[in-house]
Amino acid sequence: MPIPTRRLPINGGYNYRDLGGYPTFDGHTIKWRRLLRSGSLHRLTSQDLQYFSDMKLAKDIDLRSPRETKKEPDQVPGATEYIANPIFSTDETRASQPISSFSDELNADPNRGRQHMRTVYHEMVAEPGPQQAYRDFFQQLLSAPADRPVLFHCTAGKDRTGIGAYLLLNALEVQPDVIIKDYLLTNELVKDVQQDIKQKLTAGHFSSNYIQNSLDMASVKREYLQTAQDAIQKISGSVDQYLKEVMQLSDSDLQALRHKYRD
Questions:
Q1: Which of 71, 85, 51 has the alpha carbon at shortest distance from 154?
Q2: Which of 180, 186, 177, 196 is nearest to 219 (CA)?
Q3: Average pLDDT value for residue range 67-80
Q4: Integer Cα distance of 146 and 140 in angstroms
Q5: 4, 32, 167, 180: which sits with the fewest CB atoms below 10 Å from its CB?
Q6: End-to-end CA distance of the chain
Q7: Highest CATH level, class, for 17-261
Q8: Average pLDDT of the residues of the chain
Q9: φ, ψ for residue 151 (rounded to 5)?
Q10: Nearest CA to 179 among 193, 194, 164?
């Protein structure tokens, strides 16, 4: 059998990919076509829907805020269970908001976009609301059918989804350097989106600070994830302890996840 591709052949959206094939500490690999991550499912074509239907997609775990899901509801096959699992009550990442909502700050400070993203990443792992949402996310993974794929996503598939993937891949004991590479892979898959943002803002004669900040917020950066990692370290001492103490995953939960999603 041919090796599955990491990037999924989806036309109506971006940042669709498979977490399969990643190696773990103890010689296992993540199963292909079991754990999928992506951006919004709002613009799926009929061909895309057929692809997920043929795949027998079990769950669509939507990490977006209620406002986002109402504005751009997911399209999923009839046999797929839709789960609203908002990380924030509003879109703190601003992935779905007009950047003009704090344009004065973006014009004034060339570091404002990165500062905003670091704050968001800290909140995702340190605030009670997002912590509970990620606990719910893990419970959805634990209760999913063992032989069918699960997809989780937000708007851009990079921040809320990125932290979900970071925690999940750690729970599955994937090697740390591989987890970082998966997180940063977003930049490869959204290059066209980033280029489009740059062209539109340049054509609109926006300031260089505004353009740079907009691109910083449309990207993933090692420093963003490092902010979350530092917060996890401060809270629990290690990501393994964070999974047990904050995500409330028991040893049997972790064993069940590994049995379900690893070869």
A1: 85
A2: 186
A3: 96
A4: 12
A5: 4
A6: 16
A7: alpha beta
A8: 94
A9: -120, 135
A10: 164
The conformation of residue 226, written as its DSSP 8-state character, comes to H
For residue 256, give the H/E element and its range. helix 251-261
Q: What length does the chain have?
A: 263
Q: Which residues pair with 35 in a beta bridge?
A: 150
Contact 36, 17 (CB under 8 A): yes
Spatial neighbors of 181 by CB under 8 A, at least 6 apart, are none
Domain ranges of the chain: 17-261
Which of 29, 42, 98 is closest to 70 using CA atoms?
Answer: 42
Continuous segment of H or E residues that includes residue 82: strand 81-84
Structural element, H or E, at residue 61: strand 59-62
Handedness of CA 136, 185, 188, 163 (dihedral sign): positive
CB 23 within 8 A of CB 29: yes
Give dist(CA 236, CA 195) in Å, integer: 39
Beta bridge partners of 26: none
Phi, psi of 45, rounded to the nearest 5 degrees: -85, 170
Q: Model confidence over 132-160: pLDDT tens digits?
A: 999 999 999 999 999 999 999 999 999 99
How many Cβ atoms are within 10 Å of 17's Cβ, its own excluded? Answer: 22
**Phi, psi for residue 153 in degrees, rounded to 5:** -160, 165
Sign for the CA dihedral angle at 43, 89, 67, 91 comes to negative
State how far the Cα of 94 lies from the Cα of 58, in Å rounded to an integer: 29
The tokens of 237 are what? Answer: 């001492």
